Amino acid sequence: MNNRTRRLxxxxxxxxxxxxxxxxxxxxxxPIFIRxxxxxEEELPSLPGQFRYSPDRLAKGIERGLNAGxxxxxxxxIPNDKDETGTGAYDENGVVQQALKHALNSFGSDIYLITDVxxxxxxxxxxxxxxxxxxxxxxxxxxxxxTSPLPKTGTNSDRSFVIDNDKTLPLLAKTALSHIHAGxxxxxxxxxxxxxxxxxxxxxxxxxxxxxPIMSYSAKYASAYYGxxxxxxxxxxxxxxxxxxxxxxxxxxxALKRIKFDIDEGADVVIVKPALPCLDIISxxxxxxxIPIAAYSVSGEYAMTKAAGVAGLxxxxxxxxxxxxxxxxxxxxxxxxxxxxxxxxxxxxxxxG
Length: 353
What we know:
The protein contains twelve helices and ten strands.
C-alpha cells in the first residue's frame, strides 16, 4: 500500500507546494479593441465586460490591466473607412498607430504593446488578403465579387474568388513597419498568408528593427469560435469564408508543419488559436520546439463561458480558472485571453498560480 498519491493532496498547502503547473500575471496578454474616433468607450454586446476604446481613451483599458497586474496588451484596430486594399492598416496615422502613440505617452515602458498585423479589419470585403482582380490587381473578372456578395457558407464559394497571397505580403510588412515606427514592441501577423514571417523579418531587419520580435499566428484554424470577435472588430467576410488560408481543424500535422516553417523564417513566438479546442496542438508544439508558445483563448470561448455562467449552468470563475490552467498544462508559455484581468485576480488570490 505504498502507492498513495493522495498523501500530497491532504491539505491546501501541500497541494500548492507540489503543483506541476504554475501561472503568473506576467504570462497573460489582454486583447483590446481600438475604434477610430474620440471619446469612445463602448461595451461590446457580444463580449460582455469588454470594450472598444478610441485612441484617446485607450489608457482606461490599459489601466484596468495594470491595476490587476497585467502589463502586456494585444491591440486590434477598427477604422472608420475601409477599402479593397486595406490602406488604413498601414496608414501612419491609422487607428492603431494613433493608439500606440497615446499609450506610450501615458505609460512609457511600464507596458508591453503587441499589435495584430492583418488586413481583415481594414478591407471592405473583410478578407485577410488582397483579392485577385480587386482595384489594380490582375484582370477584371473578379470585380463583381466585391459589389455582389457571394453566398457565405455551405457552397464552394472558395472557388469564386482568389486571395492573392504574394501581393498581400508587402502590405503586411508595410503594416508591421508602420506599427513599429509608432511604438509597437512586438508585431503579430494573423492573416495566415504563406511566407509572411520571412517577408516581415526581412523588411524589419532592413530598417534596423532586428530586435523587434514577431509573434506569428502559426496554427490558426478556420474556427466557428471567432464569431464574437468578428462582430466586435467588424471583420466578418462579406462573401465566402477564410478556409483557403486558415487551417482545417481536422488537421494536426499541418499545424506542426506551419509552426516549423514560421520558426525557420524567423518567428520568435508562435500562436495556437483557438486554445481549448487545440490543447493537443499546443502539447505537440511544445514537444517539437523550444521557442515560446502563445495560446489564444478566443472570443467564442470567452462568450460561451460568460453566457453559461449568467444562465447559472456553470461556476464561471472556476471554469475560467480550470480552462486557463489546462492551456498552460498543455505547454503554453503565455495566454492571450479576454479573462486576463480576472485571471490575474485569481493568481493574486492564490486560487491558481
